[in-house]
Description:
The chain has 259 residues and is α/β, with parallel strands linked by helices. It has helices at residues 28-38, 43-50, 54-66, 79-82, 86-91, 98-107, 143-147, 150-161, 174-177, 206-222, and strands at residues 2-5, 77-78, 108-112, 116-118, 123-124, 168-171, 189-198, 201-203, 240-241, 250-255.
Amino acid sequence: MIIVLSPAKSLDYETPPHIKKHTIPDFADDAAELIGELRCLSPQQIASLMSISDTLAHLNFQRYADWSPRFGADNAKQAVLAFNGDVYEGFDAKSLSAADLDYAQSHVRVLSGLYGLLRPLDLLQPYRLEMGTRFANSRGKDLYAFWGERITQALNAQLQKNKGARVLVNCASEEYFKSVKPKLLDAPVVTPVFEDWKGGRYKIISFHAKRARGLMARYAVENRIDAPEALRSFASEGYAFVAEASNDSTYVFRRRVGD
């Protein structure tokens, strides 16, 4: 079983990693190719392409300039420790043991616009490039075209190596999961959905749902879960599995905190 997550826009390179073990991204050469094309953009073009402020555009212009095909402790950090958004606050990798992170290395993957597919301990150099960015490149009109079937093939290869159920658990956003081609995947897909009670009904609230995806990934890692059915016992921060709202491919979790 493999769980896929989205990356985060926010990055933390200030906090020292609590482990030294690391790996190099499998698609580092592809990332270098993209960086070469991104370096042709001016800060103004980056701002327009990504709909970001001039300040952020200049920051990422410099990141592309600084990016190196050499990955090391001086210019990179393990992906799961560098990402710092809602999902990763839930996953809280900095408090996981080395053994937990070793397990995650085989069972968790992060989808990335620049790096394609990352293992938790893959070294990550600072960047911003969301998968949905319509960045025309040498392979096509956008990043989905750039990555093609590569991400799906890499997931299939890892699924074949892993013991336990051959299932992909989708804890990524729609934008990122579009980079995976389910019809070419050698495994069924199970998608957890997290809903909160608000305004008289249950609904997906983005902030809470992102955090819950990270919490679920952590739950799977800490409990060494290798079959999706075991995820139904997930009950962190008040969420509970709702059988009548779920099916074999969608697991619905709900919570009602106050009214």
